[in-house]
Protein backbone atom coordinates (compact mmCIF):
# COMPACT_ATOMS: atom_id res chain seq x y z
CA UNK A 1 0.00 0.00 0.00
CA UNK A 2 1.35 3.39 -0.97
CA UNK A 3 1.64 6.13 1.57
CA UNK A 4 0.11 9.56 0.96
CA UNK A 5 1.95 12.47 2.56
CA UNK A 6 0.21 15.86 2.66
CA UNK A 7 1.75 19.15 3.65
CA UNK A 8 0.00 21.01 6.49
CA UNK A 9 -1.08 24.59 5.86
CA UNK A 10 -2.94 27.48 7.46
CA UNK A 11 -4.28 30.84 6.34
CA UNK A 12 -5.50 34.20 7.51
CA UNK A 13 -7.53 36.79 5.60
CA UNK A 14 -8.31 40.50 5.64
CA UNK A 15 -4.85 41.47 6.86
CA UNK A 16 -4.38 44.30 4.32
CA UNK A 17 -7.01 46.96 5.02
CA UNK A 18 -6.04 48.95 1.90
CA UNK A 19 -6.97 46.05 -0.42
CA UNK A 20 -10.45 44.84 -1.39
CA UNK A 21 -9.43 41.39 -0.18
CA UNK A 22 -6.26 39.74 1.09
CA UNK A 23 -4.94 36.41 2.28
CA UNK A 24 -1.80 35.01 3.79
CA UNK A 25 -1.22 31.29 3.29
CA UNK A 26 1.50 29.37 5.11
CA UNK A 27 2.63 25.79 4.64
CA UNK A 28 5.67 23.89 5.85
CA UNK A 29 7.57 25.00 2.75
CA UNK A 30 5.99 28.31 1.67
CA UNK A 31 4.64 31.65 2.80
CA UNK A 32 2.40 33.36 0.24
CA UNK A 33 0.67 36.78 0.27
CA UNK A 34 -2.20 37.59 -2.08
CA UNK A 35 -4.19 40.80 -2.43
CA UNK A 36 -7.12 41.76 -4.63
CA UNK A 37 -7.93 45.33 -5.63
CA UNK A 38 -11.14 46.04 -7.43
CA UNK A 39 -13.21 45.74 -9.28
CA UNK A 40 -12.07 49.23 -10.27
CA UNK A 41 -13.73 51.04 -13.15
CA UNK A 42 -11.86 51.88 -16.35
CA UNK A 43 -11.87 55.63 -16.91
CA UNK A 44 -10.12 55.80 -20.30
CA UNK A 45 -12.90 54.44 -22.55
CA UNK A 46 -12.94 57.02 -25.32
CA UNK A 47 -14.80 55.17 -28.08
CA UNK A 48 -17.79 52.84 -28.36
CA UNK A 49 -15.41 50.14 -29.66
CA UNK A 50 -13.41 50.30 -26.44
CA UNK A 51 -16.64 50.29 -24.43
CA UNK A 52 -17.77 47.03 -26.12
CA UNK A 53 -14.31 45.51 -25.73
CA UNK A 54 -14.46 46.21 -22.00
CA UNK A 55 -17.98 44.87 -21.44
CA UNK A 56 -16.50 42.52 -18.87
CA UNK A 57 -13.76 42.81 -16.29
CA UNK A 58 -10.10 42.55 -17.19
CA UNK A 59 -7.94 40.45 -14.88
CA UNK A 60 -4.51 41.84 -14.09
CA UNK A 61 -2.37 39.31 -12.28
CA UNK A 62 1.08 39.99 -10.88
CA UNK A 63 2.85 36.80 -9.90
CA UNK A 64 5.64 34.46 -10.85
CA UNK A 65 3.12 32.13 -12.57
CA UNK A 66 0.69 34.74 -13.93
CA UNK A 67 0.02 32.89 -17.20
CA UNK A 68 -1.30 29.76 -15.45
CA UNK A 69 -3.12 31.72 -12.75
CA UNK A 70 -4.87 34.02 -15.23
CA UNK A 71 -5.97 31.05 -17.32
CA UNK A 72 -7.41 29.24 -14.28
CA UNK A 73 -9.22 32.28 -12.86
CA UNK A 74 -10.33 33.55 -16.27
CA UNK A 75 -12.74 30.62 -16.46
CA UNK A 76 -13.79 30.91 -12.80
CA UNK A 77 -14.37 34.61 -12.02
CA UNK A 78 -17.70 35.90 -13.37
CA UNK A 79 -16.02 38.73 -15.29
CA UNK A 80 -19.22 39.63 -17.15
CA UNK A 81 -20.69 40.83 -13.83
CA UNK A 82 -18.07 43.60 -13.71
CA UNK A 83 -18.37 45.60 -16.95
CA UNK A 84 -15.66 48.16 -17.71
CA UNK A 85 -13.68 47.08 -14.66
CA UNK A 86 -10.23 45.86 -13.69
CA UNK A 87 -9.66 43.22 -11.04
CA UNK A 88 -6.04 43.19 -9.86
CA UNK A 89 -4.62 40.13 -8.14
CA UNK A 90 -1.10 40.37 -6.70
CA UNK A 91 0.58 37.25 -5.35
CA UNK A 92 3.96 37.29 -3.66
CA UNK A 93 6.10 34.37 -2.54
CA UNK A 94 7.56 35.47 0.79
CA UNK A 95 9.31 32.17 1.46
CA UNK A 96 9.74 28.95 -0.51
CA UNK A 97 10.68 27.77 -3.96
CA UNK A 98 8.94 29.39 -6.91
CA UNK A 99 9.00 26.07 -8.79
CA UNK A 100 6.67 24.40 -6.26
CA UNK A 101 4.55 27.44 -5.28
CA UNK A 102 1.87 27.43 -8.01
CA UNK A 103 -0.86 25.45 -6.16
CA UNK A 104 -0.43 27.50 -3.00
CA UNK A 105 -0.42 30.75 -5.00
CA UNK A 106 -3.75 29.80 -6.60
CA UNK A 107 -5.20 28.95 -3.19
CA UNK A 108 -4.02 32.25 -1.71
CA UNK A 109 -5.58 34.09 -4.67
CA UNK A 110 -8.85 32.20 -4.16
CA UNK A 111 -8.88 33.18 -0.49
CA UNK A 112 -8.26 36.85 -1.31
CA UNK A 113 -10.98 36.83 -4.01
CA UNK A 114 -13.45 35.33 -1.52
CA UNK A 115 -12.39 37.94 1.03
CA UNK A 116 -13.01 40.69 -1.57
CA UNK A 117 -16.45 39.30 -2.40
CA UNK A 118 -15.62 38.82 -6.09
CA UNK A 119 -18.25 36.58 -7.69
CA UNK A 120 -17.00 33.24 -8.97
CA UNK A 121 -18.92 30.37 -10.50
CA UNK A 122 -17.22 27.97 -8.09
CA UNK A 123 -14.34 27.81 -5.62
CA UNK A 124 -11.02 27.12 -7.32
CA UNK A 125 -8.61 25.01 -5.28
CA UNK A 126 -5.24 23.77 -6.53
CA UNK A 127 -3.06 20.90 -5.37
CA UNK A 128 -0.10 19.05 -6.71
CA UNK A 129 0.62 15.36 -6.34
CA UNK A 130 4.02 13.85 -7.02
CA UNK A 131 5.91 10.62 -6.66
CA UNK A 132 8.65 10.48 -4.09
CA UNK A 133 9.79 6.86 -4.19
CA UNK A 134 6.79 4.77 -3.20
CA UNK A 135 5.05 7.73 -1.59
CA UNK A 136 2.62 10.17 -3.15
CA UNK A 137 3.33 13.62 -1.76
CA UNK A 138 0.92 16.56 -1.88
CA UNK A 139 2.20 20.09 -2.59
CA UNK A 140 5.80 18.96 -2.24
CA UNK A 141 8.63 18.24 -4.64
CA UNK A 142 8.75 14.97 -6.48
CA UNK A 143 8.70 13.50 -9.96
CA UNK A 144 6.56 12.85 -11.87
CA UNK A 145 4.20 15.62 -10.74
CA UNK A 146 0.67 16.79 -11.57
CA UNK A 147 -0.77 20.19 -10.63
CA UNK A 148 -4.55 20.42 -10.76
CA UNK A 149 -6.79 23.49 -10.53
CA UNK A 150 -10.14 22.07 -9.46
CA UNK A 151 -13.63 23.55 -9.10
CA UNK A 152 -14.91 21.60 -6.11
CA UNK A 153 -18.67 22.03 -6.44
CA UNK A 154 -18.91 21.40 -10.19
CA UNK A 155 -16.24 18.68 -10.14
CA UNK A 156 -14.33 20.32 -12.99
CA UNK A 157 -10.62 20.58 -13.73
CA UNK A 158 -9.76 24.07 -15.08
CA UNK A 159 -5.97 23.74 -15.00
CA UNK A 160 -3.72 20.73 -15.48
CA UNK A 161 0.05 20.79 -15.60
CA UNK A 162 2.26 17.70 -15.59
CA UNK A 163 6.00 17.18 -15.46
CA UNK A 164 8.27 14.19 -15.53
CA UNK A 165 6.74 11.98 -18.23
CA UNK A 166 3.76 10.25 -16.64
CA UNK A 167 2.25 7.04 -17.95
CA UNK A 168 -1.54 6.72 -18.01
CA UNK A 169 -1.80 4.62 -14.84
CA UNK A 170 0.39 6.97 -12.80
CA UNK A 171 -1.41 10.02 -14.22
CA UNK A 172 -4.78 8.66 -13.05
CA UNK A 173 -3.30 7.91 -9.62
CA UNK A 174 -1.81 11.40 -9.24
CA UNK A 175 -4.99 13.06 -10.52
CA UNK A 176 -7.08 11.19 -7.93
CA UNK A 177 -4.66 12.19 -5.16
CA UNK A 178 -4.70 15.85 -6.29
CA UNK A 179 -8.49 16.02 -6.51
CA UNK A 180 -8.92 14.30 -3.13
CA UNK A 181 -6.48 16.82 -1.62
CA UNK A 182 -8.37 19.72 -3.24
CA UNK A 183 -11.57 18.46 -1.62
CA UNK A 184 -9.84 18.18 1.77
CA UNK A 185 -8.40 21.68 1.31
CA UNK A 186 -11.89 22.99 0.47
CA UNK A 187 -13.45 21.37 3.55
CA UNK A 188 -10.80 22.99 5.72
CA UNK A 189 -11.48 26.32 4.00
CA UNK A 190 -15.24 26.03 4.57
CA UNK A 191 -14.77 25.25 8.24
CA UNK A 192 -12.28 28.05 8.90
CA UNK A 193 -13.03 30.94 6.50
CA UNK A 194 -15.64 32.91 8.46
Describe the structure.
There is one protein chain. With 194 residues, the chain is an alpha+beta fold. It contains 4 helices and 10 strands. 28% of the residues lie in helices and 37% in strands. Strands 1-8-7-9-10 form a 5-stranded mixed β-sheet, sandwiched between helices. It has a 5-stranded mixed β-sheet with strand order 2-3-4-6-5, covered by helices on one side. The protein starts with a strand and ends with a helix. One of its GO terms (cellular component) is cytoplasmic exosome (RNase complex). Belongs to the RNase PH family. This is Exoribonuclease phosphorolytic domain-containing protein.
Question: What is this entry, summarized?
Answer:
With 194 residues, the chain is α+β, with helices and mostly antiparallel strands. It is 28% helix and 37% strand.
Rg calculated over all Cα atoms:
17 Å
Query: Segments where pLDDT lies below 50 for 5+ residues?
Result: 45-49
- Binned, the helix content reads 25-40%
> Roughly what fraction of the amino acids lie in strands?
35-45%
- CATH class, named Alpha Beta
Averaged pLDDT, please? 86
Q: Strand-and-helix sequence, N→C?
A: EEEEHEHEHEEEEH
| Continuous helix count | 4
Per CATH, the superfamily is: GHMP Kinase, N-terminal domain
Major beta sheet, specifics? 5 strands, mixed
N- and C-termini, Cα separation: 37 Å
Any idea of the CATH topology? Ribosomal Protein S5, domain 2
Q: Quick one: overall form?
A: globular
What number of structural domains do the residues give?
Answer: 1
Structural class of the helices, strands and pairings?
Answer: alpha+beta
* CATH-defined architecture: 2-Layer Sandwich
Strand order of the largest sheet: 1-8-7-9-10
Number of strands: 10
GO cellular component, one term: cytoplasmic exosome (RNase complex)
Protein name: Exoribonuclease phosphorolytic domain-containing protein
Organism: Blepharisma stoltei
Domain Exoribonuclease phosphorolytic: 15-119
Amino acid sequence: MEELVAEAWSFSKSFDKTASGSAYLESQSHKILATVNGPKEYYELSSSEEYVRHSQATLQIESAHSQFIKSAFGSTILVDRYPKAVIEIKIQIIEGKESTALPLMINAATLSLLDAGIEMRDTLIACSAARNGEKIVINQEGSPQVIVGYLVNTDEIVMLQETGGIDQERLAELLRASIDSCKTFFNYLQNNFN
